[in-house]
Amino acid sequence: MSRRRQIYEGKAKVLFEGPEPGTIVQYFKDDASAFNDRKKGTIVGKGVLNNRISEFLMTKLGEIGIATHFVRRLNMREQLVRAVEIIPIAIVVRNVAAGSFSQRLGIAEGTVLPRSIVEYHYKNKELGDPLVSEEHITAFGWASTQDLDDMMQMALRINDFLSGLFLGVQIKLVDFKLEFGRLWSNDEMRVVLADELSPDNCRLWDLRTNEKMDKDRFRQDLGGVAEAYQEVARRLGILPESGPADIPDPRLVR
Predict the structure, then answer these.
(1) Which of 106, 186, 192, 226 has its CA 20 to 30 A from that of 30?
(2) Residue 82: helix, strand or coil by DSSP?
(3) Using an 8 Å Cβ cutoff, are 45 and 224 in contact?
(4) What is the mean pLDDT of residues 173-184?
């Protein structure tokens, strides 16, 4: 489809005006960043893979009744989504200790948590998306108590479903980040899942070996980033063995 007016450009995606009112075209880039943009690179083909994986996971969640902003995939790098008012709170669901959680609490990476732990982060790049409490969120009006209740219920249900889905393809869902938005229809509002679901915002480990299959391979200079993303897509059954036609041999461009 032809390019439309650009609305916003983020770390991994560009948003364009949609073909009809209330829609947005979400374009997936190959850019990669970590540590609040202190590390940057390009992973050739990442945008194609994330578009495919996010489409698959959003569709599966829709089938079990989770409301999302996803409408349909348009092409290899673009998908059509509903325009929503993004809630400035990211929810992180953790099943296994890893990343900043391990560093903050001194819990060895790979430790299975006694139960899934949900954390709130205030979406503010300048502040490094700090960890916040429900008291902060409601006191400053970032989200209402009802918004948080809706987000929490969806997050836990998404965790249960995705944990089982990934387990079925021998992948461990370590943790993941969710973003939500308010979708308005006439005078009615509902909270829906927004953004994307991909190895960019999900920690995914091989169930048998604990090999990392997500963006930590970029963060930690482990190599094989695009190959890991392709393996996730293959296990989910959404890529042929040869990979998508427009992805050359995977490589990281710094």
Answers:
(1) 192
(2) strand
(3) no
(4) 97
Domains and CATH numbers, the chain: 6-83+222-253 (3.30.200.20), 85-206 (3.30.470.20)
Query: Could you give the angle at which helices 225-235 and 46-63 cross, rounded to 10 degrees?
Result: 30
Alpha-carbon gap, residue 176 to 159, rounded angstroms? 9
Which DSSP symbol is given to 198?
S
Q: Do 230 and 196 meet the contact criterion of CB atoms below 8 Å apart?
A: no
User: Residue 103: which residues within 8 A CB-CB, separation 6 or more?
Assistant: none
Residue 43 CA to residue 26 CA, distance in Å, equals 18
pLDDT digits (tens, 9 = 90+) for 190-236: 999 999 999 999 999 999 999 999 999 999 999 999 999 999 999 99
Residue 214: predicted pLDDT: 97
CA distance 250 to 62: 31
